[in-house]
Amino acid sequence: MANKFILPALPYAYNALEPYIDEATLKIHHDKHHQTYCDKFNAALEAAELNSEDIFEIMGNVSNLPAVRNHGGGFFNHTFYWESMAGSCDGPEKLPEIAKAVTDTFGSFEKFKDEFSKSAASVFGSGWTWLGVESSGELVIYNTPNQDNAFMDICDTDAKPILVIDVWEHAYYIKYQNRRPEYIEQFFKVINWNKVQERLLEIRKN
Ligand code: MN
Question: pTM for this structure?
Fold first, then answer.
């Protein structure tokens, strides 16, 4: 059976996020880790005899399919993470909709950064920290373990994500070793706020 899901190219050069996220990390993270999730996701779908090509439908039905949950989550989450970053983009203060949403919920960007960073630092083991939009329209910060995300039926939040940081050790170990808080601090220099705002507006439209 042909592979249904194909690894998307990184949306920028491997060195585009230097010096904050280094080229060696991005190469291994995208070409090896993400590729492996993609391959194993396709294999898990085949083993489960799942024919859907709609990733959201698949993720909404993972509760009895641990391999689909782990590898499908890994496939989806990494794509979302790459797109959450960019080598250069506007600062959030230049983007009125996201600026207002962040200050309405957190009071200020500094407070948002502080809360998001603390949440990311607190993930025990491997996982992700997300900024999402609740059904009320409020923004919310939450963590998910392993490769889980809010589109899955096993997740206890359904806040739609607009930003994510990968806090698995493989995301930062080459450059930062065990210093996760330093990686989180530098991540803020490469957040693609244009994309974050675009996702927010897309959610509000629906
Ligand atoms: Mn990763």
Answer: 0.96
